[in-house]
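Quick one:
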Amino acid sequence: MTSVVRAEAFERLKIAVRERPLSEDEKGQVQVMLRTDNEKLIAFYPDSKEGLLYNYDYFYPEEATQLDVFQTIGFEMVDLVMGGYSASCVSFGPSAAGKTHTLFGSDQEPGLIHLTTKELFHRIDTNAATHSFNIRFSYWEMNCDMIRDALSDEQSPLHVQRTKHGVEVKGLTQVEITSWEELDELLMQGNIRRIRLTEERNARWHGFVKLHVESYARDAPETKVSCTMTFAHLKGADRVG
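Output:
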């Protein structure tokens, strides 16, 4: 493939912090101010002259765009998958912090999932002459030990099991897709089901979007590479003190 990533370059979890713009109502109630100093994030509490230091890899100030997030995190995930490595992005934070907007975007600005998967299919098309690809898509919700399939109206409980391929959700819908447009339609269907279920139970669950990518060089079909691209949309962590 044209994009090969060295495993040693991704030896640890990477942290990205995005600062959500304040609304007019919130501007008079700011509790924490953020500043950056080299590779440190500094959080200043009201009237405090000393801040708390945090390590981070990427910081996006409030004026950052969806494209800014994609050009670092999204490109890196695509590089990993095209190099044969699995990649995961976990969106974490309290309610109304901007997790949904960052991952799913809006009509005006597509989100990280849309931009990253679109780039993935572009790379796949670019390598189609030398490599063959098979992609399966799945989308589910989870809360404690309960799992619901976001691609099916059948809401029987699903269960996690360990197989020789790793941890899998038994009975989860996996749809083979050949284009980004097919993925986009399935993602929209899953989002609609998630919204309906959230309203019915009056509670949000964690959401997981996963692409399973299998590939092999056309001149060596006996050697297959299997990896995944996963996006986790965690519900608000509101009990943090």
